[in-house]
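Team,

Forwarding the record for the chain on the shared tracking sheet. I've put the sequence and predicted structure together so nobody has to dig through attachments.
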Amino acid sequence: MSGKGPFGRLDWITVILYALLVFIGWVNIYSTSVGETNTSIFDFSTLYGKQFFFIGLAALGIIFVLFVESQFFERFASIFYLVSIVLLLGLFVFGKTIAGATSWYDLGFFNLQPSELAKVGAALALAKFLSDIQTDIRTRKHQLYALVIILLPALLILPQPDPGSSLIYFSLFFVLFREGFPIYYLGILIFAVVLFATTLMFGTVWVAIGLIILTLLVYTFKKASVKIPLLPVMGVIAISILFSLSVNFVFENVFEQRHRDRFALWLSLEKDEDKLDEIRKTIGYNTYQSEKAIESGGFTGKGFLEGTRTKGDFVPEQHTDYIFSSVGEEWGFLGTSTVILLFSLFFLRLIYIAERQKSDFSRMYGYGVISILVFHYFINIGMVIGLLPTIGVPLPFFSYGGSGLIFFTMLLFIFLKLDSNRLKDGI
């Protein structure tokens, strides 16, 4: 849709889908946190009252973004990125520790999590670099620069420790692949993840044996016309074994015990049934209760404010990472399907908008937005239903939290502002 002013040129389909997700998220936050003594939605001492306040701040952020010239975001993309890096570094001195992670600045009325701002900065900086006329992503030098932009904030966030937020930055690799990054890097990345998991499950010795057997099978059954140089293959095996040897060190020294326990539960690393059962009751408690809450909702759910597990606080931190379990219990299969449908339509619309951009910067930034939001969505839903380990990743626009909502909103509306500029120019 087009019209006069910054609001008239917005893609209102996306705005409506965004508003629906925020509203449904707030309704479920209200359900998980309302008590018998709470009477007003404007009670800012409650979680739902605070979230209502954060929605107001997000709305002010939208107005700011829409009244700024589109060129501002491209021109100052590097500044956004550098400010976010400085804020991440500052956490090591001035950071506030919550739930074992030093990831926030205490601003009194509000805890600022700079890793959320850094997602906006990284997406802008990557789009700015890739869209530069002098950048050729097929060259090793420019590939290295792009990797630094993505990995620097991730490496600063990892020791907080916050591996979940750190992992999100890897979603920006999809922007690189969309713009011509060699696809074999994706294969290397997937191979590294599989190698990491199999090393934890079976150990380096069995990984090495498996790689050697696989290589022998390839050389035995390949066609005579297919030439595979032996020396590079041996190099890959050697590097893989060295990587495998480093896995246990990383697992024991980078991840905290709570993270190690979650991986142990997810990959069935613990063979002692008594200890495994203890892990399920402690570390895996949230996921177990989340699954039970969704299961108890059935097809139509128990009804708004009628969720017994939600009311009984069976799922810890249900208003944040596990908010989707409240949807499952109170609104059932129909409710969860509706939310998934809304997110699906939202993502498809963003892809459509990204593909219609004539500006390289706008298209690349758009795919950065899509990658970050989709990654959050799949990891969060996977955690809630037990397919993935719990790593503390919120559901965009849905989970409780000021930093998340405000910076997710800015991430989105900067893209919509760039798109509205396309319409303004009649492109």
